[in-house]
Write a structure and sequence with these properties.
GO terms for molecular function: oxidoreductase activity. This is Oxidoreductase molybdopterin-binding domain-containing protein. Keywords: Membrane, Transmembrane, Transmembrane helix. It comes from Nonomuraea terrae. The structure is a single chain. The protein is α+β, with helices and mostly antiparallel strands. It has three domains: 26 residues; 234 residues, no CATH class; 146 residues, Oxidoreductase, molybdopterin-binding domain (Sulfite Oxidase, Chain A, domain 2, Alpha-Beta Complex). The chain contains ten helices and ten strands. Bound molecules: the ligand Nc1nc2c(c(=O)[nH]1)N[C@H]1C(S)=C(S)[C@@H](COP(=O)(O)O)O[C@H]1N2 and molybdenum atom. Molybdenum atom binds next to loops.
Length: 447
């Protein structure tokens, strides 16, 4: 039968539909499944390799600091790690030290700031390989099918980790699961897929990187921009459009985006005037006044902690071999010590302040336990929300700088910073510096 316009002759529509279907099966459905759909003359293995290697270097920092953060939570202590059935994934390398005091500030600041900085690179990398998402047929062999399925875990895992991380630092808990275990499981899935991807592609990426001279690319404008030579992987466009941008322009655009993310968030890890540059820092404006004028994570009001709970009636319950109740005046009569220590939040921001209070080790002795062998579970007055309790290791309790702080920068703690008393432990994640402490429950560690 001669070709007829679709649906003109009786019976022709069925034949045309069949032909269309045959063409779909052979060449893929129309649109992005057809190679000629993708026309950017910049796509190619060299560009993908440049973006991939930059991304890899950054992801190594994000992954290492992320796993360190897991260790920093002292996940083996009660109350600290609620991940169900974590098994081997709950692995950490060492007990988190109290020394140097700035370590978590640096590692967690790097985790968040580098993660944000990588967002433009990740998007550009995905853009550079997006034609591969639509490759037709979906798999020519079982091996290829498995390889492509592993990319679902890689891309999905990256998307999940970046999305949950960014939503969490915005305190925007829209996901229907708890951040901490989800980000931990997601990390292992993503890292496993990434390890496979790197093992398979790294040699190729390094080879491709040598195929063009970066300095030369950075000197080439739009006029001199030509597509990369056709590649066996199908990244280079089959029918490239004339360039509207050079590779230099693309790299500058991505690099500029990353520089902007870095520049507008790194200030949240610094004290002093540069802190005000952190326009992307989500908690930028919730400060106190006077000596208490520094970042507040959750306000007392938002957690239902009232001035009445924390007034003259307040007593600290100290539980151990002995049990006792102390008023704030009792605590102020004990030996007081002053140290400059940072609060370093898992959300990336950090700040150093000067804290005055009673040593946890002295309170342990009052409770009849020996510092160095006892951990403590700290419980707060708060009635709603998370982080109302946390456990500190025996090593943390024994550090002379680990305080039940009563004052900050020479003034009484403000209600938002944890009045009447809060925990400050050197090098601990901010979330373990429990505010509005109600009870210190000392017990032998690993009993
Ligand atoms: N009771 C209680 N303590 C808490 C929190 C909380 O939500 N409730 N937030 C923690 C977190 S996540 C951090 S980073 C620090 C922040 O202390 P700040 O608000 O005084 O800066 O407090 C910690 N102590
Ligand atoms: Mo935090």
């Amino acid at each position: 039968m001669p070709d007829t316009p679709e649906g003109h002759a009786d019976g022709g529509s069925a034949a045309a539909a069949r032909r269309r279907l045959t063409a779909w099966v052979r060449d893929g459905p129309p649109g992005p499944f057809r190679p000629r759909f993708w026309r950017s003359p910049l796509r190619g293995p060299w560009l993908t390799s440049v973006l991939g290697l930059v991304l890899l270097a950054g992801l190594v920092i994000v992954a290492v600091t992320g796993l360190l953060s897991y260790a920093a939570y002292n996940p083996w202590l009660p109350e600290n790690d609620m991940t169900p059935g974590k098994g081997l994934l709950g692995f950490y390398l060492f007990d988190w030290p109290t020394q140097p005091v700035w370590l978590y500030r640096v590692t967690q600041g790097a985790h968040v700031v580098v993660g944000l900085t990588l967002v433009p690179v990740l998007l550009a990398k995905l853009w550079s390989v997006i034609p591969k998402l639509f490759v037709w047929p979906p798999a020519r062999s079982i091996a290829e099918g498995i390889e492509r399925a592993s990319l679902v875990l890689l891309v999905g895992g990256a998307g999940f980790q970046f999305a949950t991380g960014i939503l969490n630092i915005q305190l925007f808990y829209v996901f229907p699961f708890s951040f901490y275990p989800a980000h931990l499981y997601g990390a292992w899935i993503f890292l496993a897929a990434l390890a496979v991807h790197v093992a398979v592609r790294l040699p190729r990426a390094v080879r491709e990187l040598r195929s063009r001279d970066l300095r030369r690319e950075l000197r080439t404008g739009v006029d001199g921009t030509r597509p990369e030579p056709r590649d066996p992987y199908g990244l280079v466009a089959a029918d490239p459009a004339p360039p509207t941008m050079s590779r230099r322009g693309l790299l500058a655009f991505v690099g500029g985006g990353s520089a902007m993310m870095f520049g507008l968030s790194v200030g949240q890890t610094l004290d002093g005037p540069l802190r005000r540059t952190a326009l992307l820092a989500p908690h930028g404006r919730e400060y106190g006044t006077g000596p208490n004028d520094f970042q507040v994570n959750k306000t007392a009001a938002s957690l239902g902690v009232t001035a009445a709970d924390t007034g003259a009636q307040w007593r600290l319950a100290v539980v151990g071999a002995a049990g006792l109740r102390l008023s704030r005046a009792d605590l102020l009569r004990m030996p007081l010590h002053t140290y400059a220590l940072p609060i370093a939040c898992v959300e990336g921001w950090s700040t150093e302040q000067v804290w005055t209070g009673v040593r946890l080790a002295d309170l342990a002795r009052l409770a009849g336990v020996t510092p160095g062998s006892a951990m403590v579970t700290v419980r707060s007055l708060q009635r709603v929300g998370y982080f109302g309790q946390a456990s500190l290791s025996a090593g943390q309790v024994a550090d002379p700088r680990a305080l039940l702080a009563l004052r900050v920068n020479g003034a009484d703690l403000s209600l938002d910073h944890g009045f009447p008393a809060r925990i400050i432990v050197p090098n601990a994640p901010g979330v373990h510096n429990t505010k509005w402490v109600r009870e210190l429950d000392f017990r032998p560690e690993r009993a």
